[in-house]
């Protein structure tokens, strides 16, 4: 029994000693603390920049809120001439809008001035007729009618002189043609950007065409307004007089040109000169002379009516009142025929058509004068453009050239015109 207690004591003491030793040796675990270091993204950014350098840049960087980056950066894929042509396109779009708005404004001028002058003239003529019908015996009762008609005739004369000077209907036609030609130039530049590789010569040519259009169809009235009553019709010129040669690449060895095609183009030029240009210049001169007569007759008749009204005030003569009434009615009719019929617009239309045929002559002749066929525009494409501008098919254009050649050889006149559009 004693031995068992001794052994239990030894075991308990040994276990306690072992626990003490273990407690002395074991190290308590510290709490784990995780430190999150920021990820370095610089290597990925550099790799992305290196990858970007390998591929072309097709977009323009946007503005950020901190730093402003340039809107135009010349890269290997987009040339500076392309950016410049887009700038020219923006200017052309602005001019199209300006000519359109100003054309609408001047069309309102024509309508409002025509109606106002006719109302004033007819009212004054009515007053003069009433005064003439009342007679001399009325005395002071017709004095107010006489004075009113005289003032109104004088006002109508001044307004009519101004209206005949600026010719609003002709101004409207100028703005219409300018809008159409600017849109045509805009389409040509867009086609060049889409299918070609523009260069600095293309930029200079586009700017010269824009400035030539600005000079041919000015927007302001004072100082640079076109002469509405020239001595004779001069075709409108809206293109640079010194045109740069075309830079189209050759599609074949002879660039689409043959001896027969050159002869065909020369015959087309002769037909345009002898028939189309001559006919439109003749009609334009007739419209110009008619407009001159009407522009002079209107203010002259209203002036006579104003003088008749003035004699009515001083002498109270029924004959003066009759002259005033008749002259006022005739002035209203002349004014309606001139501005309601838009004779000035008709003259401007003939002037622009004559300019169109002159442009065709110069473009064909300048192309044929180029000895090196590689520097010309492709012959087949050029023939198709000429046919479309004249409103004909290729076979019809060739038939016109053959008829012109036969008529010149036989010495007979040719009745057919080159153009079927106008």
Brief summary:
Pfam families: Chloroplast_duf. This protein has eleven helices and no strands.
How does this structure look, described?
The protein is mostly helical and 422 residues long. 70% of the residues lie in helices and 0% in strands. It has 11 helices and no strands. The chain has helices spanning 2-25, 42-54, 80-134, 143-166, 168-195, 200-216, 259-315, 318-340, 343-369, 379-389, 394-410. Helix 5 (168-195) packs antiparallel against helix 6 and helix 7 runs antiparallel to helix 8. The longest helix has 57 residues, at 259-315. Residues 1-28, 30-76 and 247-251 have low confidence and may be disordered.
Quaternary: single chain
Ends: how far apart?
144 Å
Low-confidence stretches: 1-28, 30-76, 247-251
Number of helices: 11
Fraction of residues in β-strands: under 5%
Strand-pairing-aware structural class = mainly alpha
β-strand number: 0
Largest sheet: none
Instruction: Kindly report the average pLDDT value.
Output: 81
Radius of gyration using CA atoms only: 43 Å
Overall spatial form: elongated
Summarize the helix and strand pattern as letters: HHHHHHHHHHH
The proportion of residues forming helix, as a percent range, comes to over 70%
Keywords for this structure?
422 residues, mainly alpha, 11 helices, 70% helix, elongated, disordered N terminus, Probable F-box protein At4g22030, Chloroplast_duf
């Amino acid at each position: 029994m004693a031995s068992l207690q001794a052994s239990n004591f030894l075991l308990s003491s040994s276990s306690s000693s072992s626990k003490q030793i273990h407690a002395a040796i074991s190290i308590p675990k510290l709490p784990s603390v995780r430190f999150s270091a920021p990820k370095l993204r610089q290597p990925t950014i550099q790799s992305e920049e290196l990858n970007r350098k390998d591929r072309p840049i097709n977009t323009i960087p946007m503005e950020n809120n901190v730093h402003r980056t340039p809107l135009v950066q010349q890269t290997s894929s987009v040339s500076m001439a392309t950016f410049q042509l887009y700038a020219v396109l923006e200017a052309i779009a602005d001019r199209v809008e300006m000519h359109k708005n100003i054309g609408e404004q001047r069309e309102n001028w024509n309508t409002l001035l025509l109606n106002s002058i006719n109302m004033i003239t007819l009212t004054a003529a009515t007053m003069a007729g009433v005064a003439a019908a009342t007679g001399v015996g009325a005395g002071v009762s017709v004095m107010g009618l006489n004075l009113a008609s005289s003032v109104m005739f004088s006002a109508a004369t001044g307004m009519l002189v101004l209206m005949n000077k600026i010719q609003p209907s002709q101004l409207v036609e100028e703005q219409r043609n300018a809008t159409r030609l600017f849109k045509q130039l805009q389409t040509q530049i867009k086609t060049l950007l889409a299918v070609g590789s523009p260069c600095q010569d293309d930029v200079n040519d586009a700017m010269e065409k824009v400035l030539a259009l600005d000079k041919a169809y000015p927007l302001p009235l004072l100082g640079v307004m076109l002469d509405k009553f020239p001595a004779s019709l001069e075709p409108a010129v809206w293109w640079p007089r010194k045109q740069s040669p075309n830079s189209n690449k050759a599609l074949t060895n002879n660039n689409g040109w043959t001896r027969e095609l050159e002869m065909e183009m020369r015959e087309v030029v002769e037909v345009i000169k002898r028939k189309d240009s001559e006919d439109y210049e003749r009609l334009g001169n007739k419209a110009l002379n008619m407009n001159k007569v009407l522009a002079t007759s209107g203010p002259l008749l209203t002036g006579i009516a104003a003088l008749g009204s003035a004699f009515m005030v001083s002498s109270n003569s029924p004959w003066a009142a009759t002259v005033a009434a008749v002259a006022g009615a005739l002035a209203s009719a002349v004014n309606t025929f001139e501005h309601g019929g838009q004779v000035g617009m008709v003259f401007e239309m003939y002037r622009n058509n004559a300019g169109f045929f002159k442009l065709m002559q110069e473009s064909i002749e300048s192309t044929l004068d180029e000895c090196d066929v590689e520097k010309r525009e492709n012959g087949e494409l050029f023939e198709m453009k000429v046919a479309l501008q004249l409103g004909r098919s290729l076979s019809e254009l060739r038939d016109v050239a053959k008829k012109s050649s036969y008529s010149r050889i036989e010495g007979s006149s040719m009745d057919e015109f080159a153009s079927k559009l106008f």
